[in-house]
Design goal:
Blueprint (H helix, E strand, L loop, with lengths): L5 E5 L6 H15 L5 E5 L5 H7 L5 E4 L17 H5 L5 E4 L2 H7 L3 H13 L3 E6 L3 H5 L3 H12 L10 E4 L13 H18 L2 H6 L2 E3 L8 H5 L6 E4 L7 H6 L4
Parallel strand pairs: 1-2, 1-8, 2-3, 4-5, 5-6, 6-7
Helix pairs in contact: 1-2, 7-8
């Protein structure tokens, strides 16, 4: 199956309108000939300015979260229409930091994922195990449970991007080996095939989201089931261009 790679940056709670626009301006000529899809998921308040900064380039601007309701009394949240007004195409859902610090559950991830799809945008749905779970030998059990709940009721799984982010490798400098990442992502694809259909699973883009950087991107991207990366710290600097151009 010929899946087009997808490299997405997650700025988390970083950058200002000025510094973000400067970085995008520097990235644009460096990634213009990329053989993969490229996106930067930025803080909600920066979406208008970053959309303007990325205009005329192949860099898409994404969001880091979205509520499942179309509007209402949900202080601090953002809805689909707010994002679509600025041309947002991608929304990160269920990042481990949202789960760890802000009470996201598999049930709310499922609601948000279906709401993003209903709005015609693409969810980048994050799953992953903790260090305790990996060392306890229950990685596959944990991922299976997440996939079963997070994707419940999804009609077309091929419209969902899955980001496998081993929690123990996020912001720690630790990274799964190429073989570990491949083995786990191959399992995720197999599980999606069981939940939906094998042909569907072969079409799903699955990113690696555990500290991919300019130094390890080539090896990770050479693995047959790894279709891209959800990049944290490295997306805040020009190293992001090196990752986007991993095959050059």
């Amino acid at each position: 199956m010929n899946r087009k790679p997808f490299i997405a940056g997650n700025w988390k709670m970083n950058m200002t309108a000025e510094s973000g626009a400067k970085l995008i301006g520097e990235l644009k000529p460096l990634v213009k000939d990329a053989d993969c899809d490229v996106a930067l998921c930025v803080p909600a308040i920066l979406i208008p300015a970053m959309t303007e900064a990325a205009k005329g380039s192949n860099i898409k601007i994404g969001a880091q979260n979205m509520h499942w309701e179309p509007k209402g009394a949900y202080t601090g949240e953002i809805d689909a229409d707010m994002l679509k007004e600025y041309g947002v195409e991608y929304v990160i859902i269920g990042h481990s930091e949202r789960r760890q610090y802000f009470g996201e559950t598999d049930e709310t991830v499922n609601k948000r994922t279906k709401a993003v799809l209903a709005a015609g945008m693409t969810p980048i749905m994050c799953i992953g195990e903790t260090l305790t779970e990996r060392e306890g030998g229950i990685t596959e059990k944990v991922l299976s449970a997440q996939l079963e709940t997070d994707l419940a009721g999804v009609e077309d799984v091929t419209k969902v991007v899955i980001a496998y982010e081993p929690v123990w490798a996020i912001g720690t400098g630790r990274t799964a080996t190429d073989e570990q990442a491949q083995e786990t992502i191959a399992f995720i694809r197999k599980k999606i095939g069981e939940l939906f259909c094998p042909k569907c699973a072969e079409k799903v883009i699955i990113q690696y989201g555990g500290s991919m950087n300019a130094g390890n991107c080539k090896g990770l991207m050479a693995q047959p089931d790894i279709d891209g990366g959800l990049i944290g710290g490295a997306s805040l600097k020009l190293d992001f261009a090196t990752i986007v151009n991993y095959n050059k």
